[in-house]
Protein: Fatty acid desaturase domain-containing protein
Amino acid sequence: MAPYATETNKSQAKEDNVKEDIKTLDSTSQKLKIIYPYVITFSYWHLAGLYGLYLCFTSAKWPTILFGFLVYMLAELGVTAGAHRLWSHKSYKAKPPLQIILMIFNSMAFQNSVFTWVRDHRLHHKYSDTDADPHNAHRGFFYSHIGWLMTKKSEEVIKKGKTIDMSDIYSNPILRFQKKYAVPIFGTLCFVLPTVIPMYFWNETFVNSWHVNILRYLVNLHISFCVNSAAHKWGYKPYDKSLLPSQNILVSIGALGEGFHNFHHVFPWDYRTAELGNTKFNITASFIDFFSWVGWAYDLKKVSKDVVKSRAERTGDGTDLWGNK
Ligand SMILES: [Zn+2]
Ligand SMILES: [Zn+2]
Structure:
């Protein structure tokens, strides 16, 4: 366990440092430049995914659909337990075997390399909902959901992105491997294997297998996107009512525990990204707990209940999460 007080002070000092910077950033000043090849790519994913949904109700075999659900769960954990809680926030430590598992799961989700994901995410936390935030929610739901991936990064995002400390990620051989062999790794784990396995093991057709997997990929994408859009728009703010990030239970269910977003932006180093110790909607926390039991995850960081409570009383919106009001 990390010392709570020290972590809290460190984070407070960091917050104070960037506050001045944030004041100078206008939240919607720069015009957006659309990247058309990305628009075409996303359009294809959506058309193919919709066709996959149609096939789920018509000709796809049920093991193909179940397999799609399994791939979705593993890929999602690669984002939530891997790219997010382990690599972006260092909220726990993982031994190499777990890091390899998470890199493989993460590649099944293909949300760019972990290098890019972590840089964008650290930037998002440091400059939340300003022009230096890659998915600034002040630009509207569509932009923070998916629009930011189809437009050129703002000058502020590029400029401030260079100030993010990425030394831990650059020095990680498992993540360097993922980046170096990005095309074969993402191609194989996100597209080829999930398509070929149903064809080989239960004689699924190529058309069914490909489109159901694209549907699975699309669901993974949209669930992650919802953390940036829906969880920055709808929900309670028990910890800091001045922030856009909110507690959104629906996002938590889909994103395996990532929707307790007001808590997460206030205490980003907590491996649970949630305060209640409730693992019902937090499969990612259970996954990390399991590997902690195995011995492959260690130094799990938690914020104490007292720190959480005093912060909630100081800056929260008054939502009662402890049932004692
Ligand atoms: Zn956020
Ligand atoms: Zn985060």
